Amino acid sequence: MLDLIRLDALLALAILLISLSLVTTFSRRHHKKYPPGPRRLPFIGNLLDMPSKEGWITYKKWSEESGSDVVHADVLGSHIVILNSAKAANELLDKRSSIYSDRPQFTAIQLMGLGRTHGFLPYGGQWRRQRRAFHAHFHSAASKVYRPLETQAVQRLLRNILSSPDNFSQHLRHMAGQIILSIAYGIDIQPEGDPYVEASERVLEGVSLVSSDPRALFLDMVPSLMRMPSWVPGAGIKEEARKLIPAVDRMMETPHAEVEAALAAGTAAPSVSAAMISQLSESSTEEDKLATKYVPGVMYLAGSDTTVSALSTFFLAMILYPEVQRKAQAEVDSITCRSRLPDFSDFDELPYVNAILNEVLRWHPVTPLGVPHRLMENDVYEGHFIPAGSTVIPNVWAIMHDPVTFPEPNRFYPERWLVKDPPPSPEAAFGYGRRICQGRYLACESSWAAIVNVLATFDISAVKDKPPKEIYSYGMVSYPEAFEVNIRPRSDAAAALVHGTAFEST
């Protein structure tokens, strides 16, 4: 979100709100040897240097120009440190995770009512409690339990694409929602107009808006805006965030209450929510009880957007690199003989398909600037001072486009993962240290199942005279710009396989 500052409407307010205390701050700090970065101006620091879009490219350029993999910006007295290499990110966010695992304020997110959810909680006991709950249900072995649910959702995806291929993006979102809400609450969602999906999508849209709105960052940087009326430029986002509270409540409270009622009646389906509620006892604290709402409640936000983004990138890559698609289809056919759909038992026999998933995660990471960390105490890295309270951003895109590690980084080239000494795993796409995404195993398995089954049954190509472009949105989660695609069954036999899947659309 830090790369999305539009300066035209905010500069005047910035100058107005900067007080004499900032002058004192700058005079006290100017002698510190921070990591290199653009030259700072009095009072406003690097406010004018902050990018309005594609910050991952701007920050990588700062790194190249300064000759440092760690760069620094000062915005209204707040320190922002960007890590542009795997070395720096691993050293600070992994090896020094004990002091780099906090989160920035995210004021607008808190106003929405999401501040007590796992992804945005500050480092501490409540965060650890929710993290343990996530890990219990989504570690590598546990994630394999959900394969039947993933298979059912992917088969429905295939049928939906066959029925209305032009709506493939909507079908991807439905697939992700079906998997997540089934695991979280035991819900079998409706094909259209599902109330749980609609409530979660409303919140997801709000988070996306907040993460791409420069006023949200300004609210974090200038806390005095919280005391300003909403008509003051930059302060209006407070009311916009608060308007999302009812949607957050519906997303968290309604399914939780229904699972409680089903447990009491003895009719509850297996789910994360049912398991967590059943584990409560008389000795459980209020925070334990809240965790039973927040952990399942935030799963849709944590998993839906990222899965849809990754699979959208897959479809885009198959259009732009048809030779990759043909090679992958040949590999799948060699295993299935076109007489069945591939499944998880085929994973080890499909190295090229596996490499495609790795390349999807690398080529355009779903969170190109990760989710910001916050440094809890002063630190020094390679002679540069990083002050406590700094917002620390892993530039995942730059890390995944390091030409030394990934030659021809802008090319979608799965073969890079099949050499004798392949590059490191693209796990950085899921974050670092103690803040790494707990649902990464489920996300990878769901994406792999969708990719391999789509390759087995459909041909993907560009619409005539409408080639897609590699243009991505900017926000916490980044998507390809909407594009048209021609999706057709590979053969009548492939269409018959899709029609013959075990679970019928409802």
From TrEMBL:
One of the record's GO molecular function terms: oxidoreductase activity, acting on paired donors, with incorporation or reduction of molecular oxygen
Residues engaged in binding heme: 437
Cofactor: heme
Biological pathway: Secondary metabolite biosynthesis
InterPro entries: Cyt_P450, Cyt_P450_E_grp-I, Cyt_P450_sf, Cytochrome_P450_fung
UniProtKB keywords: Heme, Iron, Metal-binding, Monooxygenase, Oxidoreductase
Gene3D superfamilies referenced in this protein's UniProt entry, alphabetically: Cytochrome P450
Family: Belongs to the cytochrome P450 family.
Name by which UniProt lists this protein: Cytochrome P450
